[in-house]
User: Which sequence fits this backbone?
C-alpha cells in the first residue's frame, strides 16, 4: 500500500486561550457564586481546607460580595464584564489569523463561563486531536496557571480517547509580548508625554509561595527589566510594585498602594502605571489601579496619574499571541 499523504494523517488542532473569569452579572448573588468557586480552589488559597471552609463560609461570603459588587458596577460595560468581552474579542481576532492554518481557536474561563470543560468538549465534537492551551497569564503562578492545568487534566481524565496537548506555562520573557507592552507604553508617552516614574504593577501573592518555589515573583521582575530595557530606562525611572493584597498575611512587596501614597513625599508627583501581568483589562486594573489607586496618589499630593491600558485586543497583542502560538503549531 502507498504511504498516506501528510494531509491525511495531520491531526486537527484546537487552540484554547484561558483567562481567570468573572461574575455573570454585577449583582451580589452572581458575585457570591463566583467568589465561592474562585476562593474555593485549593490552588488559590493555601490553607488547610477545614479552616479555610469556615473562614470562607462565615467571614467572607456573607460580606465581601457586597463590596465587590459595588466595584464591578463601576467598570461593567454594556457588553458585560470587561475581562470576558475583551478576552472574547482578542480570541476572535486571533481565530481569524489562525483559521487559515486550519486551527480551531476559542477561549474559556477558569471560573465561570464559558468553562474549560464546555469548550474542550466542543473541540472533541469537532474532531480535535491536538490541543494547545495558553493561559493568559504571562507570568507563571501556582495560583493561576497551575489551576488551569488542574482543570484541564480533570476534564481529560474523563475522556476515552486522549488528545495530544501542549500547555504553555508562561511567556514572561517572550520577545513579542515584551515588545508589545513596551510599544504600548511608548505610544502613551508619545501622545501625552512621559511622567516622572513608571510603575509596573503586578498582582500580588503571599510571600510564602515564593519560599515554596513558585517562580512568579522572579518572573515579574524579569518581565519588568526586559520592558525597561526596551524603553532604555535608567534604574531610577521605573519600579516594580504588587497590588490586590488580600488578608493579613505578608504578600509580595513593595505594595502598590503604599508606594503611591509615599511617592509625593519623595518628590515624585507625576506617575505612569502599567500592569504587564494582565492580558486584558479587568476589575483589578480598571477599578483598583485606574480609580482607587489614583485617588490614593492624588490624595497624598500627587499631581498627574496615568494608567496605561492592558494590551487588550490591540493589533500588537494579536500579533504577539499569534507569533507565540505559531511556534507551537
Assistant:
Amino acid at each position: 500500500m502507498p504511504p498516506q499523504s501528510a494531509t491525511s494523517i495531520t491531526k486537527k488542532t484546537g487552540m484554547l486561550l484561558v483567562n481567570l473569569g468573572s461574575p455573570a452579572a454585577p449583582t451580589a448573588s452572581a458575585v457570591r457564586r463566583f467568589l465561592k468557586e474562585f476562593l474555593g480552589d485549593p490552588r488559590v488559597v493555601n490553607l488547610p481546607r477545614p479552616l479555610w471552609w469556615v473562614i470562607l463560609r462565615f467571614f467572607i461570603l456573607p460580606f465581601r460580595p457586597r463590596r465587590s459588587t459595588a466595584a464591578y458596577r463601576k467598570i461593567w460595560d454594556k457588553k458585560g464584564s470587561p475581562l470576558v468581552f475583551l478576552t472574547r474579542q482578542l480570541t476572535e481576532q486571533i481565530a481569524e489569523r489562525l483559521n487559515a492554518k486550519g486551527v480551531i481557536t476559542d477561549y474559556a474561563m477558569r471560573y465561570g463561563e464559558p468553562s474549560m470543560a464546555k469548550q474542550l468538549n466542543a473541540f472533541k465534537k469537532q474532531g480535535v486531536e491536538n490541543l494547545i492551551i495558553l493561559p493568559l497569564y504571562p507570568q507563571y503562578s501556582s495560583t493561576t496557571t497551575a489551576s488551569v492545568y488542574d482543570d484541564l487534566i480533570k476534564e481529560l481524565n474523563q475522556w476515552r480517547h486522549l488528545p495530544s496537548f501542549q500547555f504553555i506555562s508562561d511567556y514572561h520573557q517572550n520577545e513579542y509580548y515584551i515588545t508589545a507592552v513596551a510599544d504600548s507604553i511608548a505610544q502613551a508617552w508619545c501622545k501625552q508625554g512621559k511622567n516622572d516614574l513608571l510603575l509596573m504593577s503586578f498582582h500580588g501573592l503571599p510571600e510564602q509561595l515564593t519560599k515554596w518555589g513558585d517562580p512568579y515573583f522572579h518572573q515579574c521582575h524579569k518581565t519588568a527589566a526586559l520592558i525597561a530595557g526596551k524603553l532604555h530606562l535608567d534604574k531610577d525611572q521605573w519600579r516594580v510594585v504588587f497590588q490586590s493584597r488580600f488578608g493579613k498575611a505578608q504578600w509580595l512587596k513593595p505594595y502598590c498602594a503604599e508606594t503611591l501614597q509615599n511617592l509625593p513625599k519623595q518628590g515624585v508627583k507625576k506617575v505612569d502605571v502599567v500592569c504587564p501581568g494582565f492580558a486584558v483589562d479587568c476589575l483589578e486594573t480598571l477599578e483598583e489601579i485606574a480609580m482607587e489607586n489614583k485617588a490614593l496618589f492624588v490624595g497624598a499630593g500627587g499631581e498627574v496619574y496615568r494608567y496605561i491600558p492592558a494590551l487588550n485586543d490591540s493589533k500588537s497583542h494579536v500579533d504577539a499571541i499569534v507569533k507565540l502560538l505559531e511556534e507551537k503549531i
Observations:
- Residues 175-308 form a domain with the Rossmann fold fold (CATH 3.40.50.1400).
- The mean pLDDT is 95.
- The chain has 13 helices and eight strands.
- The two ends are 29 Å apart (CA to CA).
